[in-house]
Amino acid sequence: MSMNEVREALRTRFEADAILGATALPIVPPDAVPRSTGPTGPVRASTTTDPDELRRRLATLQTLDETQVRGCRKCGLADGRTQTVFGQGSVAARIVFVGEAPGFEEDRTGQPFVGRAGELLTAMIERGMGLRRDDVYICNVIKCRPPNNRTPAPDEIAACCPYLFEQLRTIQPEVIVALGAPAAQTLLNTRESIGKLRGRFHDFYPSGSALVGDPVPLMPTFHPAYLLRSPWEKAKAWEDLKLVLTRLELPIPRKT
Ligand code: URA
């Protein structure tokens, strides 16, 4: 490894620690932890500002939630849920984050990513990317909590993922971030590991078929719950998020 590569690796690691929480002994005293200066240039927050289009998207998602998802009994997870967790955020979002399935807090509140993993995801979006959580859209592959937060089974994913595809077709994001293996594997129709998939964009076809329609760039990255257990991987996740910002021509917030 050259000196330049070592320097670059260390810079990424320190940036990731500053944004996503330190992973090792605090080398820098807390007062000196860099703060995000936020976006420095003009930031386009939405895919469209056309009010008719936004109303149409809102109505489509509301109808999907109220007429299909809330009462869904397509798999056994319906028996154990307190409520379904549809999704949250802006229907004009340029980025959609897709997680795995609701956990305890999400099942209790009906909102995605509100537990510990959700706190980290919010930090990644707000402190890291310099965006507002309200300006992106967040949802899951599975809308009901699996017992003891186990990984969803293939038949549960197959039953539930048409709802996710409809959400993505409605919102028409410019980039999708798949958080963890179940989300990335479901959306890309692959069994490849998240370690191999992350770090570069893949084509996602909202139609569900690689031969139909325009693909949407999809960035797989590590799930925040995994990052809580394996904090040394945060630097890689930060690299992935920076690629997303660059793709959208959004400024990478400088840490002062
Ligand atoms: N993990 C997920 O994948 N989704 C949530 O909503 C919460 C935790």
Please, could you describe this protein's structure?
Mean pLDDT is 89; it is low at 22-42. It contains nine helices and six strands. The chain has helices at 3-20, 51-69, 104-109, 116-128, 154-171, 181-188, 194-197, 224-229, 234-247; strands at 88-89, 95-99, 137-140, 175-179, 202-204, 216-221. The chain has 256 residues and is an alpha/beta fold. It has a six-stranded mixed sheet, with helices on both faces. The protein has two domains: 1-35, no CATH class; 43-247, Uracil-DNA glycosylase-like domain (Uracil-DNA Glycosylase, subunit E), CATH 3.40.470. Uracil binds next to helix 4. Uracil (URA) is lined by residues 99-103, 106, 112-113, 115, 117-118, 140, 225.
Beta strand count: 6
Going by CATH, the architecture of the largest domain would be 3-Layer(aba) Sandwich
Report Rg: 18 Å
Low-pLDDT segments:
22-42
Which ligands does the model contain, each kind named once? uracil
Helix content: 40-55%
Fourth-tier CATH superfamily name of the largest domain? Uracil-DNA glycosylase-like domain
Indicate how many domains the architecture comprises: 2
Strand order of the largest sheet: 1-3-2-4-6-5
Q: What is the residue-averaged pLDDT?
A: 89
Ends distance: 27 Å
Put simply, the count of helices is 9
Q: How does the helix and strand content classify structurally?
A: alpha/beta
Major beta-sheet overview: 6 strands, mixed
Give the C-level CATH assignment of the largest domain: Alpha Beta
Which fold does the CATH topology of the largest domain refer to?
Uracil-DNA Glycosylase, subunit E
SSE sequence, one letter per element: HHEEHHEHEHHEEHH
The fraction of residues assigned to DSSP E strands is 5-15%
